[in-house]
Design a protein that fits this description.
Layout: H1 2-14, E1 18-31, E2 34-46, E3 59-71, E4 78-85, E5 107-116, E6 119-130, E7 138-139, E8 145-152
Antiparallel strand pairs: 1-2, 2-3, 3-4, 4-5, 5-6, 6-7, 6-8
Length: 164
């Protein structure tokens, strides 16, 4: 019985914290071709013993996304998306929102999308936003990301080819 209590105590010290993430968003479309998107996020950790708490684990009450889209890749061939936003390309191995983490990742970016039946082209310029608990998150202006992401549907049957 004593050994069992020692084991439980060791396990509780190993991983005894709780992650919480709450997101609230609003989408406003005054015209079919114009959409505004706002998203707030509250990410907290309870019982976490390491200090300081990393910005990837906790970032209370912050504006996560604030962007607009002009045009629509669903209605026409062109769309322009600008502001603080998620960027995801393909399977998110290179560029993604990182939603597996408690805080996630956003970018200050401008993205131009062209989509047709044969495929999609995304051209964007972005800067990663760094989570700063207790302050407004800011992008690192000196770290830039420029990319042309493409996805072709009909090159190989039943597959998508995605050159970056």
């Amino acid at each position: 019985m004593g050994a069992w209590k020692a084991t439980v105590g060791w396990l509780s010290r190993l991983a005894s914290y709780c992650l919480q993430r709450f997101r609230l968003n609003a989408t406003i479309s005054p015209q079919r071709w114009l959409t505004f998107y706002l998203e707030g996020q509250d990410s907290r950790v309870f019982g976490y013993r390491r200090r300081p708490v990393a910005g990837t684990v906790q970032n209370p009450a912050d504006l996560r996304q604030a962007c607009f889209e002009s045009g629509s890749a669903l209605d026409g061939p062109w769309a322009l998306h600008a502001g603080r936003q998620d960027l995801t390309s393909g399977g998110q191995r290179l560029i993604g929102a990182g939603d597996w983490g408690n805080v996630g990742r956003t970018f200050d970016a401008v993205r131009l999308t062209h989509q047709k039946q044969y495929g999609r082209f995304d051209l964007f310029a972005a800067s990663n936003v760094v989570a700063a608990p207790g302050m407004v998150d800011q992008s690192l202006g000196n770290i830039k990301l420029y990319c042309l992401y493409t996805a072709f549907n009909n090159w190989i049957p039943s597959s998508v080819v995605e050159p970056y």
